[in-house]
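Incident log, entry 3
Record: Acetate kinase (390 residues)
Problem: checksum mismatch between cached and fresh output.
Input:
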Amino acid sequence: MTETILVINAGSSSIKFQLFDAADGTLPVRLRGQIEGIGTTPRLVAQGGNVLLPPESGDGVPGALAFLGAWLRERLGGAMPVAVGHRVVHGGPAYDRHMAVDDAVIGTLETYVPLAPLHQPNNLAPIRAIRKLLPDVLQVACFDTAFHRHHSELADRYAIPDALHREGVRRYGFHGLSYEYIARRLPDLAPGIAGGRVVVAHLGSGASMCAIRDGHSIDSTMGFTALDGLPMGTRPGQLDPGVVLYLMGKGMDARAIERLLYHDCGLKGLSGISNDVRDLLASTDPRAKLALDCFVYRASLAIGALAAAMEGIDGLVFTAGIGERAPAIRKAIAERARWLGVDLDEAANTANALCITTPDSRVKGWVIPTDEERMIALHTHAIRRRHRSA
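Fresh output:
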């Protein structure tokens, strides 16, 4: 019977999953899908367009996972995955690499909930639920912060007292699983820049950029939390901390400020229309244009800053939802980066081609789809092999 690895990427109302064949290291995908509408009208949408309605359990994530487990058992002839890998946004100061999960690890990760309140609770919920359902199955936590944990001290220190730094108040960086995947793909897809200095733009509802030199993260736009850096769908990006002090002075408490910064800022706050770039591109409202212009402007500033961190730039890679599927945004960013040597091929960009710059462009531009789930599967597979050989 074929062994499989289940990968779970959990959000507040959905659970994305992929099932990988673990028979060899290539890990082909056997099945992918997601459970949507958790907490309201949950439904399982699987590969091939099948839609199944879970029973009305009212248990939220645990109920959805119980249904998913039964559904998978049916398709796997009664077998269950030999391991489950999870995306966990914040590994904090304790974890600079991906880890097998036990009660101590879960306890530590729970202390980082205030550092990623939008993500961490949702990442941990399926880990707890599976430990109750399948206590003997290996679970692996794969951290978005791990890829960035070998930055120089200059890149990760804040200008704050050393005691706070020792407590873990430092720049971590996020979207590390996405950046690691891109770094691994560059030698095959773009060998000319794989060993050089590359800025990767992970542009989605959550957005950031990373400076990668010779396959290693040098710096990132995100810092202590996933609020920093570029404007995002609902998050402001870089913000003077004095703004938070101002809001406190107006009587807003921590919970209200958290709600504002995680849910009501970014493209949504600027436009007053939507947090979705597709809606803003289709709108004639000047506020929509303002939101997109701000997004492009801040992204172009970040390219310059990350190029400075590497003392040069050889390539620019776009990935994630906006980066992969919004030619107009790529064009606007590339045009503002022309001074760095980015010469856009407009036809290639419009066609979402792999390479979107002209042959004589000094800085090569690429569009490479990311695959965080595959990175999680690879790390889970490696950790399982180590456990079996120990």
